[in-house]
## 1
Amino acid sequence: QVHLVESGGGSVQAGGSLRLSCAASGYIHADYCMAWFRQAPGKEREGVADIHRGTFITYGDSVKDRFTISRDDAKKTLYLQMNSLKPEDTAMYYCAVFPYSVFRCPSSKDYKYWGQGTQVTVSS
């Protein structure tokens, strides 16, 4: 069983930065996919970034070159550094874990463990 707790959300002005953290408890292998997703009111859940096997990283098109995902497996913590924030980044941000070793991280529906989310609000 894996338990995830996100933190670091808040309200910022456009152009600002935030750093999200996701602390995990339970067994997390370095090969497992850990990911950030977000969902704004009235919109579908969107993949933000994922990381597995230490260095394999994928970003959503809307956050490339602005967001950076990283993980500290010793601390069992996932991070998301968000720079140059835009109002359209406003959403609830969730971290998730896919507890299997795979070649490529799956879509959101296949992730088994989810955090409760942390709200990010960007004002113009």
Note: The first strand starts at residue 3 and ends at 7.
## 2
Amino acid sequence: QVHLVESGGGLVQAGGSLRLSCTASGRTFSGYAMGWFRQVPGKERDLVAAISWSAGNTHYADAVKGRFTISRDNAKNTVYLEMNSLKPADTAVYLCAVQSTSYGLAYKLGYDVWGQGTQVTVSS
């Protein structure tokens, strides 16, 4: 059983940066794509970014392209989300997940292992 733990969230002013981390324990997420999602109360959970096992392919939601960067270190069982030029609209709980069943990086399907989330709040 894989357990995912996110960290790095917090309160930041608009225009600022944060770096989120998601570390797996229990077993590795070897061979699986990983994704970062975000959720605001009362709204659907949105896919923010995804990365293939080899890190050779990535996908970003239009809202974050050019501002966020997803990366992973498989030796450390960790995936990162570097967030720059943050906006108040980026405020959400950010969750990482394992795409155990591959549907492609651009799709929200196939994710079945989730972390507990980390809150990101961007003030104006």
Note: The mean pLDDT is 94.
